[in-house]
Amino acid sequence: MKIMGLDVGSKTVGVAISDALGWTAQGIEIIPINEVDHQFGLDRVGELINDYQVSKVVVGLPKNMNNTMGPRVKASKRYGKMIQARFHLPVDYEDERLTTVEAERMLIEKADVSRAKRKKVIDKVAAELILQGYLDRNHQ
Fold first, then answer.
1. What is the 3-state secondary structure (H, E, C) of the chain?
2. How do the domains of the chain map onto residue ranges?
3. I need a surface site. Which of 8, 53, 102, 128 has the fewest CB within 10 A?
4. What is the pLDDT of residues 55-112, one digit of tens each?
C-alpha cells in the first residue's frame, strides 16, 4: 500500500510517495498550481496516483504555532476534499508545522544546496517530511 504525501501551497504542490511497506517517504516532484486561477494540478496528481498505485493521500496542514488554523489550513483541507472527490481515495491530514523550515535547514546543512536550487526542491522535501512524519507516527 503506497501513500502519497502532499505539501500544498498557493503556487506549488510538493509530492512524496511511500515505499510499498509504508516505512519510508521519497520526494517525487513539485507540481505547479495557481489557486487564484483555480488550476490545482489534479491531472498530474492523478497520473502519479496511477503510476505509483497510491491507496491513500496525506495532506500537510500548516497550523499556526499556537495550534490554531488559519487560511492555509482551510486551503489545504479544500485541496484534500478535491483529491477525495476526484480519486475516491481516503485522505488524511498531518500537522506540518516547521516542515519547510526543517527542509531548508536540511538542504543547507546536509546538502549545501544554494538558495536558488533550494527554491526548486524545498516543497518536495517538505512533502517528504510530512509523509515521513505520518508514516512514523502510524507505525508506532
1. CEEEEEEECCCEEEEEEECCCCCCEEEEEEEECECCCCECCHHHHHHHHHHHCEEEEEEEECCCCCCCCCHHHHHHHHHHHHHHHHHCCCEEEEECCCHHHHHHHHHHHCCCCCHHHHHHHHHHHHHHHHHHHHHHHHCC
2. 2-138
3. 53
4. 999 999 987 667 676 778 899 999 999 999 999 999 999 988 666 656 556 655 655 5
CA separation for the pair 93, 69 (Å, rounded): 13
- CA atoms of 44 and 22, how far apart (whole Å): 22
Q: Which residue has the cell 488559519?
A: 70
Cα 17 to Cα 26: distance, rounded to the nearest angstrom: 5
Q: Which amino acid is at 2?
A: K
Query: pTM of the full predicted structure?
Result: 0.85
Q: Which three cell numbers stand for residue 52?
A: 505509483
Look at domain 2-138 and name its CATH class: alpha beta
Amino acid in position 46: G
- Whether residue 77 contacts residue 91, with contact meaning beta carbons closer than 8 Å, is answered with no
Which cell goes with 77? Answer: 483541507
Q: Residue 47 is placed in which grid cell?
A: 497520473
